[in-house]
Prior knowledge:
By secondary structure, this protein is an alpha+beta fold. The protein has three helices and two strands, in the order H-H-H-E-E. Helix 2 (16-33) runs antiparallel to helix 3. The longest helix has 18 residues, at 16-33. It starts with 8 loop residues before the first helix and ends in a 5-residue tail after the last strand.
Amino acid sequence: MPAKEELPSTLQRSPKKAQETWSATHDAAVEQYGEGERAHRTAFSSLKHSFEKVGDHWEPKEDGK
C-alpha cells in the first residue's frame, strides 16, 4: 500500500515536507523489507533527522541543534 494512503495522523497535521520525507522513505523501505512495522520504523527514523515531534504534529528542527 502506498505510504500516502496510510499516513499516520501526526503526519497528516504536519508540513508537506515532513509528509513527503516519511512517504518516500516508507515506500523505499516497503520495497526492501516488505510491508509492516519495520518499514514504519525506518520511515520515522528518517523523519527524525530533520523534524521533531511537537504535540500532535512534526515541525522542522532548528538549525544548530
